[in-house]
Amino acid sequence: MATIVPLASVDPALVEELLDRAFGPDRHARTAYRIREGTEWLPALSFAAADDAGYLVGTIQLWPVALTDPAGRAHPMIMVGPVAVVPERQQEGFGKALMLAALGALEPGALPQVMIGDAEYYGRFFGFSAAPTAGWRCPGPYDPARLLVRCDNPAILPAEGMLGPWRERADAPAED
C-alpha cells in the first residue's frame, strides 16, 4: 500500500536520486526537460509515494508549460511528468497511485494536461489522447504518438504549435 505525500515534504536530493535510478543520469537531455526548462514544478500538484516501510519509491511532478500557436499566442497547459518509480518496485501500482493523486488535485475545468507517454496506458486509465496533438511540435526529438493531452473540451486546443515553458509576460498588466 502506498502512502502519498506532497513532494515538497521530501528531500530534493532523494528525489533527484530516484529520478536518476528510474530514467538514468542522462535524463536531462530528454525532450520533456527542454519543454519545461527554466520553470519550477507545481508543489500543490506534485507528489511522492512511500512504501509500507516508509521508503521513497516514486514521484510525480507537474509543471507550467504552454503551447505557442503560429500567431505567437501562448496557451497555458500543465505538463504531467516525470512519473517515476524505482525499477525494482515498478508494476506494483505506485505510478498509478501517483497519477490519481496528481490528477485528482486538479480543479474542475483545469488547464489542459500534456505529457509524453504510452498512449494506450495513459488513454485507458486517465483519458489522455494523441489525436489533438498531431500538429504540435516539441523542442527536441520525440515520438508524435507519445505526445498526449487530456482536456475537458479538446475543441479549444490549437491545432498547431510548439510546446515550451510557460512564462508570465513581462508586459502583462499587474493585478490589483
In words, what does this structure look like?
The protein has a single domain (3-165), classed as Aminopeptidase, CATH 3.40.630. The N and C termini lie far apart (46 Å). The model is unreliable at 170-176 (pLDDT under 50). It has four helices and eight strands. By secondary structure, the chain is an alpha+beta fold. The protein has helices at residues 12-23, 31-35, 94-104, 119-126, and strands at residues 3-6, 47-50, 56-68, 74-85, 113-116, 135-137, 147-150, 160-165. Strands 1, 2, 3, 4, 5, 6, 7 and 8 form an eight-stranded mixed sheet that branches. This is N-acetyltransferase. It comes from Pelagerythrobacter marensis. Its EC number is 2.3.1.-.
Alpha-beta content class: alpha+beta
The N- and C-terminal alpha carbons lie at a distance of: 46 Å
Number of alpha- plus pi-helical segments = 4
Mean pLDDT: 93
Q: Please report the first level of CATH classification, the CATH class.
A: Alpha Beta
Largest sheet: 8 strands, mixed
Give the low-confidence spans: 170-176
Strand content: 25-35%
Q: Which range best describes the helical content: under 10%, 10-25%, 25-40%, 40-55%, 55-70% or over 70%?
A: 10-25%
